[in-house]
Write a structure and sequence with these properties.
Elements lengths: L3 E2 L1 E6 L9 E7 L2 E6 L3 E5 L8 E4 L5 E8 L2 E6 L8 E4 L6 E5 L4 E6 L5 H4 E6 L3 E6 L6 E5 L3 E5 L14 E6 H5 L3 E2 L3 E4 L2 E8 L5 E9 L5 E3 L5 E4 L7 E7 L4 E6 L4 E5 L1 H13 L18
Parallel strand pairs: 1-22
Antiparallel strand pairs: 2-25, 3-4, 4-5, 5-6, 7-8, 9-10, 10-11, 11-12, 13-14, 14-15, 15-16, 17-19, 18-19, 19-20, 20-21, 20-22, 23-24, 24-25
């Protein structure tokens, strides 16, 4: 079955200089935040329309961006404040801190403990870590390496909080599994709701968002029949970040072309129109199995 299709609704370069890369996106209460290679942190309305609020931070080469709460985002940079790690917080335990590094290790810390040795609760040897996320309330981790190798590591505790033997689902090199050139990120949408965005720049450029779900035997597998295609993506440039807003059925992408793009599907637009007229909430159709995606 061919993937469902989303089409671009709007694009912005945040009025940044040419040759600027957008490294990452993250949501906050009034829209999105973005970091760039121009040492900037920008605040973007959900419609991608100006004006944008952009803070230039000389000397801070941002490499990592995450939401802390509705009104706070956190950056990691090469000035030593947060060293070369991409970090995320546990969805139900804000004290649990996940870090990954080029040394190949995934570490889970209890951030309430000051002593680093005592705070370190879990070590996983995954290989040079590109991205990693908690994907459920039990501490399950999904990680992808710089060699595009993806694995899922089950939580070290069961539902009663008792320690158990760690289980691993090794999905291998995603490039050969999904027929892509690179993995953008691991998008954790909720309890065991994961999307893996992968891209191509040669031939027919595009981005494909493929669901990753736990199968009947307890192992995780890709649901390729429910994949979503973003044709063209950012052309010949690599996509650096993807944010999925299931509430309004939209996808935001940012790339090395310096652009941020908003992608929608027709049913989502119709829902937004109905919302404005009736005051009722829009359906979240982006990740629904029955959603139909049509070109404009």
């Amino acid at each position: 079955m061919p993937p469902k299709i989303l089409h671009p609704k709007s694009t912005t370069n945040l009025t940044l200089s040419p040759q600027t890369y957008i490294y990452a996106l993250t949501p906050y209460s009034n829209g999105l935040a973005a970091i760039s290679s121009a040492h900037t942190l920008s605040l973007i309305p959900p419609t991608l329309t100006a004006p944008f609020q952009t803070l230039t931070t000389p000397g801070a080469d941002h490499t990592c961006l995450a939401s802390y709460d509705d009104n706070t985002v956190v950056t990691g940079s090469r000035d030593g404040i947060v060293r070369f790690w991409d970090v995320s917080f546990h969805p139900t335990n804000p004290a649990a801190l996940l870090s990954g590094s080029t040394d190949g290790l995934l570490n889970v810390y209890n951030s309430t403990l000051a002593d680093e040795d005592e705070a370190l609760e879990r070590i996983i040897n995954h290989g040079s870590v590109h991205h990693a996320r908690f994907i459920d309330s039990k501490g399950t981790i999904c990680a992808v390496s710089h060699n595009e190798v993806l694995s899922v590591y089950e939580g070290a505790e069961d539902m009663e909080g008792e320690e158990k033997e760690e289980e691993v689902t090794a999905l291998g090199d995603v490039r050969s599994v999904l027929g892509c050139e690179y993995v953008v990120d691991v998008c954790a949408l909720g309890e065991e709701e994961v999307l893996i965005p992968v891209g191509k720049t040669e031939g027919k450029p595009g981005l494909i968002l493929t669901p990753l779900r736990r199968g009947g035997g307890g192992k995780w597998a890709f649901e390729r029949d429910e994949a979503v295609l973003l044709p063209g993506a950012h052309g010949e440039e690599i996509v650096r970040s993807v944010y999925v807003d299931g509430k309004i059925g939209a996808v935001y992408t940012a790339g090395e072309d310096g652009a941020v793009r908003l992608w929608r599907e027709i049913e989502a637009d119709e829902d937004v129109i109905r919302t404005s007229k009736t005051g009722k909430s829009a359906r979240s159709s982006l990740v629904r199995k029955e959603a139909q995606y049509k070109p404009y």
